[in-house]
Specification:
The complex is a heterodimer of chains A (462) and B (426). Chain A is mainly alpha-helical and 462 residues long. Chain A has helices at 2-29, 42-78, 82-85, 89-104, 114-152, 159-199, 202-207, 231-262, 265-280, 283-304, 314-339, 342-350, 355-384, 387-392, 410-418, 427-461; strands at residues 211-212, 227-228. A two-stranded antiparallel ribbon of chain A has the order 1-2. In chain A, helix 4 (89-104) crosses helix 5 (114-152). Chain A starts with a helix and ends with a helix. In chain B, 66% of the residues lie in helices and 5% in strands. In chain B, helix 12 (280-304) packs across helix 14 (321-350) and helix 13 (308-316) packs antiparallel against helix 14. Chain B has 17 helices and 3 strands. Chain B is mainly α. Classes of the chains: A mainly alpha (462), B mainly alpha (426). At the A-B interface, helix 2, helix 6, helix 8, helix 9 and helix 10 of A face helix 1, helix 9, helix 10, helix 11 and helix 12 of B.
Chain lengths: 462, 426
């Protein structure tokens, strides 16, 4: 909460600096009556002072808050006696954790000895000192920045240009965040994946047929060797995606055709928003529906015709996922169909072909690239879909093409590997990042190809 | 010549019936496809409302509880922490059914009411200590099994071993019903409690607050950054490799699976920056990265729809480019940007996969009171409850989904209204 007061103080200083900058600009030319002697409007001098006061101080504040915990921990560890410092990383982390808990007055695990008590005290001292220093530094920077800015105000000073330049830099920074996000995704997934591939060879991961990520905790443990052959996961993902596409592509495409070509405008104006609702339902809700309504229904339907159906069959998850993707396919197909020039459609109709013939022989071939692009985007969506399969598909990695059996997918395994207590550097958790890398690369390729198809196609007729 | 013409006409006419049939079949297939989506929606909502509506009411049992001084204040002094409120509830139940004897039978009897009953009594006594010594009539929540029986979700006619409630308990419930001591009332606990292992005490307030804090962080970050990025890309960016790269990036980010954002959050915010696990702050950061592309794309479209004549007029009157944007373009594009932001927020509200990655999937009883308290979110609560085997949790899951969909509906309606009210046609 101390940070909150500091930020409020800073906001107060910023407001004051705006006011002071504005007043000073008017003062240097001798009052509001002579405002026209200034290069910029008085408000811009205010903004200039505000920016000089606020930006450096905020930078100091953020850097401090981000680095503070690490530095303090490093200082405390440095001051520990030799016996504790030579502990393994894991034990040291536990010790630091206990010291922090002790310092905060929380429950600690294990016994408290004098060394820990002293360390906790030192920890609290460092925190208190750091707080004080942070307050002084932040407010000092703010004051200094504001003061320097005030001194620079002259009638000929180009405050507007300065302010606008700063705003432009901020705008550029904001738009670079998209790039930073992508870099962040690639780096975070790649680094952990590389650590994983140091323990498990890439070929075993990509071509191995056996997936059982349980690692032995003790050396003599039975049955937990840990094998990371991801082929069953890829097969399971493809199976569920294929089922979803079998549902979504024909239904989505036919819906788009019907709404574009046949339906009255009244039907269109009710059916379209209804389908958009389908697209807006959270995936966790689809997952609940798949697990508790569709899966039992599929099971009993299968059993009534004498089929052995697993209670977490790929079919149930795939069916519901297909329904979820219908709106995506239908809206992208709709765009593609509407982009075909009316002249082509009218020409075909004028030559005497029926509407369905026009659609199948003329419009669909012309719209095909756009539709294919849309389907690729839909496939990427299905591969990356998580909640439906987490709730309705199984956990066991079966290598099968039978839709009535339970299969598992890449996303399900990422979730199961990372949810729960696991030390972060075991091969088990790192495997999740390797799977994430595969997922990211595959969906990225599909997206790029799909988006290029869609865009190229649109340009063709524009 | 004449024979030839007749010939082609004959050919066409011979094929007409077949072609008309095909046309009809094609049309029917289209209609069927459209119907599938709409029918699914209908079935979906019907199931949800059918399953979930009963969770908004809860069965209560009326008990006459004697707040005896001997139990509450044995030493003459009232100590709420150690007072045996459970014992009071039990003796009230014994009074209600004096003919129940034997340990196991009594234990079954005690299981009629929820353990929330003793907390309720404690709160009553804490609010008014002068009640000690008197007998009060209170409505306490029934246990979830009784609740399910009263709502008809447990069939009392099937064999005793197949249902979670015994024959004796069914009998007692029936006699309570006859004595008019069993009522169903609005389930306030659903909206005022945090999560609980006991379905009758479990509520969504914790999850709602968690979602709320997350959305605050998300909107505070994603809206300004998204709008700023859109302004730069539309109004200032030179046509260069860099701006092309940003453009491709944004379009791709919009289609990256949400779980990958969760991996990013785990690796960067939790492992590298050492931010707290399970905190709405981290959830909000991840969700703002997730919604940023949505907001940028919508904001760009809004800026594009402002006619160039406005920019030209302002420039002609001597405004700088920055002034043109902030004084003229931005106010006109704002409704479209707000619509895009609300739609992005509704996507963020329904998102759960990335939150699983950053530990917002824990069982958390306390309602979070800040941005760094451990919390969960409404869709994650749905996921957690959906895993519970009890029938009463299935009902509450549906109720939580109804609440979630209600919020999404309100947000989308707000977006539509803003678009209708404020958008200008040029």
């Amino acid at each position: 909460m101390q940070n909150m007061t500091l930020i409020l103080l800073l906001a107060g200083m910023a407001a004051a600096s705006f006011y002071m900058g504005r007043r000073r600009s008017l003062a240097v030319v001798g009052g509001p009556a002579h405002g026209s002697q200034l290069h910029s409007l008085p408000g811009y001098y205010g903004y200039f002072t505000l920016i000089s006061c606020l930006l450096p101080a905020l930078g100091v504040f953020l850097a401090w808050v981000l680095l503070e915990p690490k530095i303090i921990v490093a200082l405390v560890v440095d001051n520990l006696p030799e016996a504790q410092r030579s502990l393994s990383t894991g034990e040291l982390n536990l010790l630091v954790n206990n010291i922090q808990n002790l310092a905060a007055g929380d429950v600690t695990s294990g016994d408290i000895d004098a060394v820990m008590r002293a360390a906790a005290e030192r920890y609290n001292d460092y925190i208190a000192a750091s707080r004080k220093l942070l307050t002084v530094l932040t407010l000092g920077t703010a004051g200094m920045g504001g003061a320097i800015a005030l001194r620079r105000i002259r009638p000929g000073f180009r405050a507007r240009n300065r302010v606008e330049q700063t705003i432009l830099y901020l705008l550029i920074a904001a738009s670079s965040i998209a790039i930073l996000t992508t870099i962040g995704i690639v780096l975070s997934v790649l680094f952990e994946a590389i650590r994983f591939f140091r323990e498990v060879p890439l070929t075993e991961f990509l071509f191995g047929l056996n997936w059982s990520p349980q690692m032995a905790i003790r050396a003599d443990q039975v049955g937990s060797s840990g094998s990371f052959g991801a082929v069953p996961l890829f097969a399971g993902t493809l199976l569920i995606t294929a089922i979803a596409m079998f549902v979504a592509v024909p239904i989505g495409l036919m819906t788009a055709i019907y709404l574009a070509e046949y339906s009255s405008s009244r039907v269109r104006s009710t059916a379209k928003p209804l389908l958009e609702i389908l697209a807006g339902i959270p995936t966790v809700v689809y997952g609940f529906f798949a697990a508790l309504t569709v899966a039992p229904w599929v099971r009993s339907a299968g059993e009534s015709i004498g089929l052995e159906v697993a209670s977490e069959s790929a079919l149930a998850a795939g069916l519901v996922m297909g329904i979820m993707i219908i709106p995506l396919v239908s809206s992208l197909s709709d765009d593609a169909i509407h982009a075909v020039p009316t002249a082509m459609r009218d020409g075909a109709l004028g030559l005497g072909s029926t509407r369905s013939e026009t659609m199948i022989r003329v419009i669909l071939p012309a719209a095909l690239p756009g539709i294919v692009g849309g389907i690729l985007l839909a496939v990427s969506r299905a591969i990356g879909e998580t909640m439906i399969v987490v709730m309705a598909a199984g956990l066991a990695a079966n290598l099968t093409a039978n839709p009535f059996e339970a299969v598992t997918t890449v996303t399900v395994q990422i979730v199961t590997l990372l949810v729960g207590d696991q030390e972060f550097d075991s091969a088990k958790t790192l495997a999740a990042f390797a799977l994430g890398l595969v997922l990211f690369v595959v969906t990225l390729c599909l997206n790029i190809i799909g988006l290029t198809f869609v865009r190229k196609y649109r340009e063709q007729y524009e | 010549m004449a024979a030839n013409r007749k010939n082609s006409r004959e050919i066409v006419e011979a094929g007409l019936a077949r072609r008309r049939r095909k046309e009809k079949a094609f049309r029917a297939a289209g209609m069927l496809a459209t119907a599938v989506g709409v029918i699914f929606l209908g079935v979906f909502f019907a199931t949800l409302i059918f399953q979930g509506s009963s969770a908004f009411v809860q069965t209560f049992i009326t008990l006459d509880v004697e707040l005896s001084e001997d139990v509450l204040a044995p030493g003459g002094e009232l100590d709420l922490a150690y007072a045996d409120f459970d014992g009071l509830v039990r003796s009230a139940l014994r009074q209600e059914f004096p003919d129940v004897s034997g340990r196991s039978e009594r234990r079954e009897l005690y299981r009629l009411v929820s353990i929330g009953a003793s907390y309720q009594l404690r709160d009553i006594v804490a609010a008014d200590p002068s009640l000690v010594g008197s007998t009060i009539t209170v409505e306490v929540p029934a246990s979830s099994n009784v609740d399910m029986l009263v709502k008809g979700n447990i069939d009392p006619t099937i064999d005793e071993s197949l249902r979670p409630i015994s024959d004796a308990q069914v009998r007692w419930v029936e006699s309570l019903q006859k004595a008019d001591r069993l009522h169903t009332r609005f389930n306030k606990a659903l909206f005022t409690n945090g999560d609980s292992r006991d379905p009758e005490l479990a509520g969504i307030k914790g999850a709602l607050m968690g979602s709320f804090y997350m959305l605050v962080v998300t909107v505070a970050l994603a809206f300004p950054i998204g709008v700023a990025a859109a302004i730069y890309l539309e109004e200032f960016a030179p046509k260069s490799r860099w701006s092309d790269l940003i453009e491709v990036n944004i379009n791709n980010l919009a289609a990256v699976p949400s779980i990958v954002f969760g991996l990013l959050g785990l690796a960067v915010f939790i492992n590298w920056m050492a931010l707290p696990r399970s905190a709405p702050l981290v959830g909000g950061l991840v969700l703002s990265l997730l919604t940023l592309p949505v907001i940028i794309i919508a904001s760009r479209a809004a800026i594009q729809s402002v006619p160039p004549s406005i920019r030209e007029a302002a420039l002609g009157l001597g405004a700088s480019r920055m002034q043109v944007v902030f004084h003229h373009v931005l106010p006109l594009a704002l409704p479209g940007m707000l619509t895009g932001t609300i739609i992005g927020m509704s996507r963020a509200l329904g998102e759960s996969a990335p939150l699983l990655m950053i530990g917002m999937v824990a069982f958390i009883v306390d309602v979070p009171g800040g941005f760094t308290d451990p919390a969960t979110a409404l869709p994650v609560q749905v996921y957690l409850w959906a895993d519970s085997p009890e029938r009463a949790f299935a009902e509450r899951t549906s109720a939580a989904i109804i609440v979630l969909l209600g919020f999404l509906l309100i947000m989308n309606l707000a977006a539509v209204i803003i678009r209708k009210r404020m958008e200008r046609k040029w």
